[in-house]
Every structure is written in C-alpha cells, then in structure tokens.
C-alpha cells in the first residue's frame, strides 16, 4: 500500500513537472495575447484592451464587441535583441466603454500569420451601473403627464444627470392587441447636442411606424429633469414571451467629452394567444368594433353596377383587421374589393374606420338581395369573440342596360384629367379572332399535310396507272379478285343462273391469275397447274369441288338455298386463292 | 372531271373546317364586354380592368379587349401594363390606328426612353411583316395559298393537253411562288418571335443586378413602362436586355410582364 502510494506520487510529480515545463513553451508558441487593465468597472468607466502580436502580421481581427463601444484605438511596435537574435512585436490598444451593465465577455481576438489563425482566450468583464445609464425598472409604464405639467420621477433616477428607460403599457397583451412601447430620456443637464434615437427592431410585432414624441418635466432629488418620451404603437404577431431589444440613445461627442451611448434594458411581454373556438369568419381583428353596410343606390338596372360599402369602425388595430368573408350569389357579379383606412391615434390607442368597398353588378332583373355580411373580432377586454352582422339589402333591378352600355361606351368615357387624357376611346367588341395563335395548334400544321398528301397521292397513283398500263398481265393478275367479286355481285343482282355464272367467274379469275385460259383444262390438268403455283392440296381440292358443283348444278337444277351456297363458296374460294396466288 | 369535282369538294370541306377552327374563337361575349365598358365609362377602371382580364382568361379576348385593358391601365397610371396590353392588341390587329396611337401615347409616358433598336435584316423583315398582318392572318394566308397550290396542281395533272393546261401550269408556278413568299414571311416572324421574348417593366422601379441575387449591387434601375427583352430565366430571376442588346442584367420575374402571355 505504501509502495503504491509512492509510485502514484512519483507519476503525479512527473506529470506536473512536464506540465510546468510545457506550459510556457505553449504560451510562447502562441504569437497573440490579449489582456485588459481591469475586470470590474461601471458603465461610466472605460477599460483598455491590449493585444500583443509577435512577429510580422497584419493587425488582429477584433470581433463584434457586444455591450461595448470602442472609443479609441492605438498601436506601437517593439523591437528587441536578445542573445544576438532580433525579434519584433506590435501592441494594439483599444479603449472600450461598456454600454450596459452585467457580466460581459470580450470574445477571442484572432490574428493570421503565414496562413495559420491564432486566437486568444475570451475575457470576462463585470460591469456595474454607473451614474448615466438605465437602471432596471418594472418594465411597465407610468402614464405620462399632460403637456407642461410635472410628473413623478422613477425611483431609479436617483439623481443621475442622464437616464433612459423603456416600458410597455400592457405586459400581457393578446395577439394582435394594440399596446404602447414607451421610451423616456431624462436629462438634468443640458448636453448641448442632439442625441440620436435608435429604436428596437420590434421583431414579432406589428408597428404603425409613426412614433409620437411628448416632452415634459419631472422633479426628483431637487433636480428638474427634462423628459423626452417616445410612444410607439405595437401589436404582437407572435404568442408567448416576446422580448423587445434595448433602445439606444447615441449622444455625439464634443470638444470636451467623448461620445456616449445610453441603452435601456430589454422589455419582455407575455403575449396571450386567442382563445379556442374562433368563428369561421374571424380574420385577426382585435379590438372593439361596430359594422355597417350601405349601397350607393337601391334601384338600378341589369349590368349597371352598385357599390356596396362595409364600414368597420371602432378602436383596435384596423390596419391588420382582415377582409370580410363575402357571400357570393349568382344574382350578382362581384369584383375584387378595395379597402380604405382612416385612423387616428390618441394616447397610443388606434381608432377609426376601415371601409371595404365592393362593386356588384346585377345579372338579372327583379328585387335582388345582397345577403347579410358577418364580421367577427376578438375583444381583449372581455376576452371573447364577438360577431357583427349587417342586415340584408334589397336592390330593385330593372331589366336590360347592356345594349345601351355598348352603344354609349365610347361617348360615355369621361375625359381623364391625368396623363392618359390623350388616349383614344374604349372600343366595343371587335369580333375579330381571339388571341391564341393558330400556329400554336397542332391541327393547323396537320392541315398543311392535306395538300401534300393529295398531291403526293396523285403522283403515286398516276405512276402506278402508267406502270400497270405497260404491264397488262400483271394488272389483270392484281385486279383479278376485285374483278371476280364485282362479276359475282353483278351476276347475283342480274339473277343469272348461279352455277353457270359462278363457274364462268371462277374460270375467268383463274385465267387472270395464271395468265392463261383454264376453261378447256381437265380436272387433273387444272390440279397440276394449281399445284405448280404452290397451292395447297386443300385449295386445289376446293377448286375442283367448286367446278364439279357448278357443273352438277347446271344439269340438275336445285333450290335457291343451293344457289346461295354456290355464290358464297365461289366468293370465299376466290378470296382464299387471291391470298395464295 | 368527276374526280376533279370530288377533289374540289374535299378542299372546300377542309377549308370550311379551317374556317370553323378560326371562327370558334370569334366568340366575343358582347354582354361581358359591355359591362366592362360600362365600368370604364363610370370611371371604375380597376374593376373594368378586372372585367377585361376575366374576358381574356375565358379565352374570348380579341384585340379590342386588350386595347380596352390597356386603356384602363393607362387611366390607372400603370403605363407598363398599358404598353403590354396595347402590344398584345397590336399583335392581333396591327393595322388598327387607335391601338398604334395609344401605344405611342403610353410609350411617351414611360420614364425610361431608349433609342430605336436597329436589328438584323431578319428582325426588320419580321417587324415589317408584323405591321402588315397579324400572325393568324399570315398563318391563314400561307395555308390558303398552300391549299390553292395543291388544288391547281391536282387539276393541272388531271387536265389534257392544250391552252388550258398551259394556263394551269402558269397558275401552279405562280401559286408556288406565293406559297414560298408567304411561308417565308410566316417563318421569319415565328423565328424572330420565338427567339426574342419582349417584356415590359410593370413594377414602379426595379433594380437591375449583374447576377440573379438580391444581395448583388444594383447596376442601374428601370422604371415602369421600360421595354426589355427577356433572355434567360433562372430561379425567379429573368435576364433582360435593353434595346440593342448592349446592356443586360437580372431582375425579379414579377417585376416584368412578357408580351406573349404564354411565355
């Protein structure tokens, strides 16, 4: 046990010795170091960040210093000769002023030497509130006094010369509910310069983009503060905790003092979602509203327009109030709505009216009804959805104005007072072909093939006729079946004796096909001739059978059924032989 | 003779089919047009433009609809859309003096004025042809001449010898030459129109960048009514060139409207 303890002690000692030896070497290998002259300061103080770079290198890369302003920079070069070796280095100084209190971090500073990036370690700095910046407050607004009046100062003011704060009038708004973000700048001394106001981005909020400024005074600790208050109307577009980033106030420097930046604390609001069960026509209107509908005429004619106005008025964010859900009807041809907004802002509250205007054209005569229109909104005071509805409107529509409109259109178009006054008048329908080019239609190009096919066909037909005229045997052979069928049909129509006619047609067909007369041949001679043409025995036998049947029938007349059988037998055999010969 | 008559009937039948093909698109929906015109007459230009656009979307558009839509946009102060629709109307009815007058008036209102473009001989021929006849008129003329050539050829081949055949031979040659001319004019116009895609800036102002990216620096700005030619399309961006093709850059496609709707 003792031995083991000894061995462990030796290993630990060796490792410690190695670390002690290696650590300076590691430090010496990193050519960049960063130090600060203090790690704790107030927002009224400054610190100096010194970055030393050994060797030839470009200036170090200073990262974004969140929470600090760089108020001054400088650099110096050092050259030293040690044991005959010359080394050089550059020292860069940055004077930093914190612009907010808290535990801040100066990120790693980097330098690139011969393509290799070397970095320092991040440095932690603790910043406490100084005499000229914001203190945490409740984040909720106190009402501003009336113009010219003095108001109570916040406890955090604490006798400071300059002070900024930010708050909202409603820390738990509903989504879409209007609220006011208030920024106040207190100054007990005359700074003599115009500060620059840098508002937050107001991410996740709708804002009207028209902040209102109000100046007044407050008394605190026997000092009179001039207060500049900026109110910005917001409406949250997201739900849950949403943080509004700090507002900054930049005070430019002068001959006697440097520039300063004052910054408020962030403000967090807890946005409540709309409750479940929203009506189908709820389109995001939040506030308290009323609804009215009116038309510009209660009597009109078919195809003459009527303008329907839907007026939504009240207090709330009318800008983001959604469009109404229109009820479509076949009796009316409706056009896209247009909306106009007329709002006022008082004490951070938006009120006014939004007018949705829609053009309706009656498509038929009679007493037509514009259906009732409903509009739902969410009332944040009662936390319930409320639905407004208009009454149906009856319009008396007289028949037919379309023809009149066409006839009078050109003359009726008023002379426009604008730049378009010199254009020529509107036209009635021209009745000319529609826009789609014929060349885009495949059938158009297919029609081009028709003359081509006819001309080509005629050329081919003419050449074929000429060829056949010079080869009568071949022509007769090719036309044999067609000729035979036509002859059979003619004999049938002429009520000729079936057997004699069939035998005559069949012999003529064979003569055309074989190029010689066959009527004088005996059955064996005919069979040999057909077999010599490569016909099957079956076809040869069928040919002989047909001739035998015809010969028999000629001398032993039979009934009409047998005649029909002969016609069909001959026709079928001619077709079969035509395929083989 | 019988064959010749049969062939003539075939040709007449096909011509009738062709006529119906074109005539089917002649539906004009006069009532809807009158409603749109009534809206314009009452100064409701936005609704009138919507009504004209509905007519076009329904396929019942003719040159008058495009012309009236251009007028509505002129009244609304949208010179770019006015030029687009006057151009479309002129394409359908190039000899209409009202269309040409209002197109010139709209162009005069455009902020960006460029010198007249000097194109290639093919371009100039196509432009000249486009001022004489619409693309459909040229297409019908070329096809009609082709049918006439085919018919004359057929009759010529069926005819015997003599003076009549000589006259038919002359007719065939003449018809052939006319077919070549008509097809040449139609082909050059199709080649030019398919090769160039004219467009008009319809945004109030659009920044032209060297690359199709919103992060690129702006080379210059174009304003509503500027007439450009579309080159390449890439990911929601269109490469456009100014008249003459010397200067080009990229703009978002929604900032421009092609003259040819099918593009």
Explain what you see.
The complex is a heterodimer of chains A (581) and B (263). With 581 residues, chain A is α+β, with helices and mostly antiparallel strands. Chain A has five domains: 29-128, Immunoglobulin-like, CATH 2.60.40; 150-271, Sandwich (Immunoglobulin-like), CATH 2.60.40; 282-398, Immunoglobulin-like (Sandwich); 438-466; 471-580. Chain A has nine helices and 30 strands. In chain A, strands 21, 23, 24, 25, 26, 28 and 29 form a seven-stranded mixed sheet that branches. In chain A, α5 (472-493) runs antiparallel to α6. Chain A is elongated, with a radius of gyration of 53 Å. Mean pLDDT of chain A is 81; it is low at 15-28, 132-138, 142-150 and 402-419. Chain B has 263 residues and is α+β, with helices and mostly antiparallel strands. Helix content of chain B is 60%, strand content 14%. A five-stranded antiparallel sheet of chain B has the order 6-5-4-1-7. Chain B has a two-stranded antiparallel ribbon with strand order 2-3. In chain B, β2 and β3 (218-223) form a beta hairpin.
Distance between the termini of chain A: 119 Å
CATH architecture of the largest domain in chain A: Sandwich
Distance between the termini of chain B: 50 Å
Uncertain residue ranges of chain A = 15-28, 132-138, 142-150, 402-419
> How many DSSP E strands of chain A?
30
Q: What general form of chain B does the structure show?
A: globular
Instruction: Examine the secondary-structure arrangement and name the CATH architecture of the largest domain in chain B.
Output: Alpha Horseshoe
